[in-house]
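Lab manual, section 2.4: Encoding a predicted structure.

Procedure: take the sequence of the chain (89 residues), apply the prediction step described in section 2.3, and record the output as structure tokens. A sample record is shown.
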Amino acid sequence: MIKTPPKPAQELPDIVGPAPEDPTPPGTVAVPRPFIPDQVKLRELTFVPLLVGSVLGAIFGASSLYLTLKVGLTVSASIPVAVISVTLF
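Recorded output:
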């Protein structure tokens, strides 16, 4: 019985599994397709985001001013406003 020599150690042991398949045939270049077609008109600024942004800005601006005048210390209101607006939408 012939013994096969041991396999050499991999250079990159964290890469496991077969190599990914290339979906394009050899000699061709893959052309990316946009997710949203050019013909679609998206509304970028509408009344609802303006209203919600104004209300949240007024609430957090007033609370920041109150905290500053009462305690003498203020916090950045932009992060809580961003989290709440992402949660709402």
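Check your result against the sample. Residues 56 and 84 are 9 Å apart (CA to CA).
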